[in-house]
Amino acid sequence: MDELTDKLLLGVDIGTNESKGVLINGNFRPIADFSVPHSMENPQLNYFEMDAEIWWSDFCKISRGLMEKAGVRPERIAGVGTSVMGCDCIAVNENCKPLRKAILYGIDARSGPQIEELVNELGEEGVTAMFGHIPRSDDIATKILWIKENEPDIYARTYKFLTGSSYLTAKLTGKYTIDSYLAKAAFRPIYKQDGTYNEEHGPRFCRADQMAAIGDVTDVAGGIIAEAAEECGLLAGTPVIVGTGDSTAESIAGGLVTPGTLFVQFGSTMFYIYCLEGHMNACSKDNFPGCNPFTIPGSFAATGGTNCAGTLTKWVRDVYYGAEAETAKKGGPNAYSVMAEEAAEVAPGSGGLIILPYFYGERSPINDPDAKGVMFGLSGSHTRKEINRAALEAVAYSLGSHMRMFQNHGLTPGSVIIAGGGTKNPVWMQIAADVIGMPVKVAENWQTASYGDACMAAIGCGILKDFRALKEAMPLSRPVMPDTHNHALYQRYLDIYEELYVSNKELMHRLP
After folding, report:
1. Lower CB count within 10 Å: N or C terminus of the chain?
2. CB of 476 within 8 A of CB of 265?
3. Is pLDDT of 265 > 50?
């Protein structure tokens, strides 16, 4: 083990609002972390973009910052793993230069007309057979189709259509690769489930030569090329694994290494990965997403999530806790800590206040990019405290609604893991446990996507044999137990939460 502890592994994750990196040692504990903030662009309704070149700049700042902070030389880095927001679409030329800003994951719903056209042409059964589910805003194939129809010059000049991790790996190694899970899930139906280009459906979206080669996330894509090494400060030849999406990396970091486990990421959005032993077919009735082969060999994953989680609490902070946010800048208490304390002072149910968190439309389980946010039940007795807690409950209700969807298909997870920035708020974690009526295992604060990237790099570099060996090396998550009385209360509120959308869907769609 002494030989292993001398080897360090580097993980970098590019998120919605910031990029984070970590160095871990052979004991699989972090020795240094580093972050760089950035922002996304929302140029018009349902459009969310980001300059992918910022991601490469962030990677370089992080790699140099980590080595300086830890006081280590690049020779000690045994391997590198990266992740980026999972379902982004980046069009690059032969020099891996982005030809337009990256179209972001499911929050970007610009491809709605393309989805509608596909459904109208093929019918629900036809598109479900093609995609494995009713097409939705996080399908990269429909984003490519949007570029093809709206930016034909960009489309014609595109050498490769990549997602975020593919882009970073290409910048580092010169190799265009994508992990098999993202390829078979996010890029379906361009790739078939055996990993080959789909000659039947692929040409509708793009050519075979415009797609990256498939590999497992832990496969070594290549060594760092000289040009990239000079920019990021790492040693040329350092192994870089294929990489993956941020939610997958964070799920691995939290301990999702066996089927029967539901992983929930409480970040800017709430995203889930339900790891299953067998394949489940999609169901249009309740938008059950169906399954694709997962990162863990021999397993499958159903995925989805709500567009507004941490972004909802940020909205509450900005609108109702502006003074605390300003005080925090001057060295005062963190505004989110104040919010957590005030949420704890409010009884479950927020005094009859329910929020629908559809501030940016919604993915699963309603699959409606035109859904709108709602505050229901407001009265003169409500204060910012109730609104604050109701926002936390709103995201938990979305999780509860997903749990009901799983149970309607005969699925009840054996364990639930929660990770992400939201885990810093213990009140939120208790609300989540109470809503679903199950214990939730809360990952450590440092068990983030970048940590998962570094851990998977350990497998790729041969330091660990496989994911089960990784499980043994990781810490045990702390459990949060549900309150049965609160669960019964929240089930009644969850009924109202779900009915609110159904009753107001048509009215929502009349709004701009």
Report:
1. C
2. no
3. yes
AA letter at 478: R
Mean pLDDT (the chain) is 93
**DSSP output for 12-72:** EEE-SSEEEEEEE-TTS-EEEEEEEE---B--STT--EE-HHHHHHHHHHHHHHHHHHHT-
CB-based contact 288:302 (threshold 8 Å)? yes
Q: Please state whether beta strands 8-14 and 77-84 pair in parallel, antiparallel, or not at all (unpaired).
A: parallel
Q: Which residues pair with 354 in a beta bridge?
A: 376
Q: Using CA atoms, how far apart are residues 393 and 475, in angstroms rounded to an integer? A: 28
The Cβ of residue 214 has, within 10 Å, a number of other Cβ atoms equal to: 21
pLDDT band at 285 (very low <50, low <70, confident <90, very high): low
Comparing C-alpha atoms, which of 101, 198, 214, 105 is closest to residue 166? Answer: 214
Residues in a beta bridge with 30: 24
Q: SS3 of 440, please?
A: strand
Q: For residue range 158-203, what is the model confidence (pLDDT) as tens digits?
A: 999 999 999 999 999 999 999 998 998 899 999 998 889 999 999 9
Say which residue the tokens 């505004």 belong to.
Answer: 335
The reported pTM is 0.79
Asked if residues 181 and 217 have their Cβ atoms less than 8 Å apart, the reply is yes
DSSP 298-313: T-EEEEEEES-SHHHH
* Phi/psi of residue 355, nearest 5 degrees: -110, 130
Dihedral angle at the C-alpha atoms of 110, 115, 116, 120, nearest 10 degrees? 160
List of domains in the chain: 2-255+444-478 (3.30.420.40), 305-442+482-510 (3.30.420.40)
Residue 108 phi/psi, 5-degree rounding, is -85, 115
Residue ranges of alpha helices (H) inside 186-309 are 226-232, 246-254
Q: How many helices (H) and strands (E) does the chain have?
A: 17, 22
Q: Are 164 and 88 in contact, with CB atoms under 8 Å apart? A: yes
Confidence tier at 2 by pLDDT (50, 70, 90): very low
Q: Contact 58/14 with Cβ under 8 angstroms?
A: yes
Gap between the Cα atoms of 346 and 448, Å rounded: 29
In b/e form, how buried is each residue of 414-435, taking b as 16+ CB within 10 angstroms?
A: ebbbbbbbbbebebbbbbbbbb
168: Cβ–Cβ under 8 A, 6 or more apart, which residues? 12, 14, 55, 56, 59, 82, 84, 243
Listed range (236-250, 279-293, 348-362) with the worst mean pLDDT: 279-293
Alpha helices in 409-483 (DSSP H): 426-436, 449-460, 467-473
Residue type, 479: P
Rounded to an integer, what distance in angstroms lies between the CA atom of residue 508 and that of residue 492? Answer: 23
